[in-house]
Amino acid sequence: MSSVSVAKRIQTDLDAGLTAYEKWRMSIRFSTALVAASLLVVGILIERWMPAEQLSLGAAFQAAAALLVLAPILWEALWGLFRESPEYYSGQLVSIAALAAFAIGDFTTAVIVPVILSVAFFLEERSILGANSAIAGLQALQSNLARRLTEDGTERSIAASELRVGDTIVIAPGESIPADAVVLHGHAAIDQSSITGESTPEEVSPGSKVFAGSMNLNGLIRARVTSAGDDTTLAKVLDLFQEAERSKTRVLRLVEQYAKYFVLAVLMIAGITLFLMHDVTRAITVLVVGCPGPFLIAGPAAMVASLAVASRHGILVKNARFLEALSEVNSVVFDKTGTVTTGQLDVCRVVPCSGEEIAIIQAVLPGVSVNQHPVSKAIARYGKQQDLSFVEAEEVEEVPGLGIRIHYPDGRVVLLGRESWLNQEGIETQPIDHSGPMVWAAEISGETQRSLGCICLSDHARADSSQVIQLLRDLRVERTVLLTGDRSAVAQHIGQEVGVDEIVSEVLPSEKLQVVELEKKAGYNVMVVGDGINDAPALAAGNVGVAMGVGGADITMRSADIVLMTHQLDRLPMAMVLAAKTKATIHRNVLIGAGLTLVMLGMASAGTITPIAGAVLQNIGEAFVIINSAAILRWKWQPVSQSTSS
User: For the chain, first and last CA: distance in Å?
Assistant: First the structure.
């Protein structure tokens, strides 16, 4: 790789996510530091190599260097007096130290300490381990252009921001999808890792959902826009990430709350040192090493690294404090349909009254293949799996809430629907022992009518449900509860299959809320996991609410604290382990950062280090915090009980 390309890569990395003001602020800091360092070197050379009468010129160069490098820091320190924000504390302490060094004529210290602080400033700005870069990366996924299909069938290239719900767009291989949409025509493999965290491309066909920011890997598709602009799933992901990055945990709020008292203590120690020792250099060193940078960035560095890892795995955390709450969860309440189960009906058996099973499915296939009801989709899918052929129907008539009538060219009529509807039509049925949904098929031919049989359907548990519940137990979760409005027999079957501790069935949304409240009153820290809409009250009531799925509905975003942009339940224990690791990292950062600062304060008061050495040591403390936090970025999920100790 050429030096030019390396330089461009570095510049891109440094600029990623910076606003114009941030770039200007950084350039001022570095340009003044560079010029000041040059002036300082010139002044020192004049003092050492020029005649004695030129000493004042050398001192003037050094004084100019000190004033130049101190000016932006002093301005920010004064501005910070009116803002009362911890981010200005380090600048205020260093400003006092540099002014004191300037006053006693120690221009070298007055220049080098602020220059070292500028390096620390750079580390802090970029330390937050690419929070801005992560956000900019998400923003970069948003396509700027879209190809909209006009009414006359021609394609027109427009800005993605001009797309509206209902527009038909064309996405070619290699193009980014500009909006959330439903595929109308074509087949393709879509890379949705930026949204769902899944590395395997998803095969889409007519009826499949695609999301803004995902990439079409192959195949030309046409799709109808369902959400555009700020309403897309990607835009909501970006909003969640920004909101979480700005939020704080209890530990971070505590650190910031007492940071000002720490600064006052440092000023007091510096004053006492000066009073007792009559040594301005020691007092300056105290001010330099007392900068609270290491433990002020202790939390944000770890938190944003954790948020980036979670987002990479399709776990969107709405607020940083919920990462802390996750590590304290000891009871998990699951919704059944769409959470523990797939939420998709499948044909489990066909009970014939007359004829063969295959003949019954073939008789109803012409009707279900053109109907969008979940039961129809399940039967159509079953017919496709069995590779069954069928005769085209003359007409398919839908009877709302009851079923469908399928009219054949030979005069036959096949009914598919509720048992009660067939009974009303004078068709007898027989009792069937099945706890899940079922539909009946019947045939009317002239004056003859007969029941063909019953098609039984069921939802089934996700493949990883039982394993995830065991993983949660390994993470010291004491109770797991399955909550559903479904019938008791269905709930018992699913609950026993996945191995939950308690099953609560036939409850309304308001009653789900009561169950969660009872868990909390019993002393548990409750995590509620649901599909977001009918579970909204329960999600909001839990200590942590987790919404499943990638639909991005507003009610999901509002009621849940965490949104899983994938249907894999193993993200739950993954999030809990990551939360525990993040909490431990923050505590370690704060303790070591504060401890190192206290040790350096003692050394500075004793006169064992100089101001410049103190500034270097103070930067070492910040570097440790950043490196320790960066370790979270390399963390990989290991779904075994041993991961609890990681």
Answer: 37
